Structures are given as structure tokens and as C-alpha cells.
Amino acid sequence: MASFDVESKVDDQSLDNAVNNLKKEILNRYDFNGSKTQIELDKKTHLISILTESDMKVRQIEEALISKLLKQKIDPSALDASKEHYASGNMVRKEIMVKSGIDRDTGKKMVKLIKGSKMKVQAQIMDDKLRVTGKKIDDLQSVMALLRSSDLGLPLQFVNMKK
Fold first, then answer.
1. Cβ atoms of 50 and 94 closer than 8 Å
2. Three-state DSSP class for 34?
3. Is residue 63 classed as helix, strand or coil in its secondary structure?
4. Contact criterion met (CB below 8 Å) for 60 and 31
5. Residues 6+ apart with CB under 8 A from 141
6. Region of residue 127 (left: phi > 0; alpha: psi -120 to 50; beta: else)
7. How far apart (Å, rounded) are the C-alpha atoms in residues 103 and 100?
């Protein structure tokens, strides 16, 4: 039986590099000169926190963050932006969560999608990833194409292919 795993992970070092490059860019930009802007990455929880003076600057930082992520080959769909929270005074705080792993609901959607395709494969949820097994490698490649074409809101990686 051939099999492969479907994961949704973000490389920690690439994420750290993207945030550090963003910090350097913000320090050197003229429109952020003299502003009290802070960008921090909590490596354990994968939480990017932005603290700045206005909504417009938050949007500019988000756009710059997405461009830095793309340069590091990280899919921007891994970001989960929450609502803006107003901190003390006139400062605006925004927290952006970086999704890691496939949650239960998305895993169930993927299994349902695979079973609905009537391919001769089995899919099972294993913690934060999905294992797909089948007799033919062509069927597994069809499942990969199906999952790539479906919009699940997560960047997917196909790893651990076994024949």
C-alpha cells in the first residue's frame, strides 16, 4: 500500500527571518520615521504582534509582512489576522496568528472531500496531519491534485510518500 501525509506547517526559521527583515524595513522607511512601532514574534505560540500609532500604519505593516513572507516562500494563507485592539492612549495593537497544523474541522472537510471524489483511497486524521493510503500511486497523485485545487484556507505540504 502506498501512502503520503498531508501537513500544514510553517518553517520557524523562515518566519523569524521574514519578521526580522520587516523590522529592518520599518526602521528605515521614511513614513515610519519617529513613530513608536513595535513588531514582535513569539516563537513558541507563532504569534506576531504589531503595536503602532494608526490603522493606516497597521495596514502598511501587514502588506509589508505579506511581501516578506512571500520572499521567504511562506504562503500568506497561513496568517490568521484578528481584529484590531486599541491599547493605551492612541496606540493600535494587532495580533496575527500563524496557523500550524491541520485542525479537526479542516481534517474532516478534507476526508469528506476525498471520500466524495470516489477514488479508491483511505484518509485518516492523525493529530495535526492527514494520512492518505491507496493501492495505486496514480490515485494518490489525483488526491494531491484535488487537495491543491480545493480552497481550504491552509497551505498544504505533501510529505512522507511511501510506495
1. yes
2. coil
3. helix
4. yes
5. none
6. left
7. 9
Residue 83, CB-side half-sphere exposure with 13 Å CA sphere: 2
Residue 83 vs residues 41, 57, 108: alpha-carbon distances, Å: 18, 15, 27
What residue ranges in 72-120 does DSSP mark as E strands?
79-81, 85-86, 92-98
The pTM of the whole model exceeds 0.70: yes
> Would you give the end-to-end CA distance of the chain in angstroms?
7
Cα torsion 154, 48, 65, 81 to 10°: value is: 50
Contact partners, residue 45, CB within 8 Å, separation at least 6: none
Distance CA 146, CA 142 (A): 6
Closest by CA position to 123, among listed 100, 139, 138: 139
Beta carbons within 8 Å of 152's beta carbon, 6+ residues apart:
106, 109, 110
- 46: DSSP letter: T
Mark the ranges of the chain whose per-residue pLDDT is less than 50. none
Of 94, 121, 98, 99, nearest in space to 110 by CA:
121
pLDDT tens profile 114-144: 888 888 888 888 888 888 888 888 888 888 8
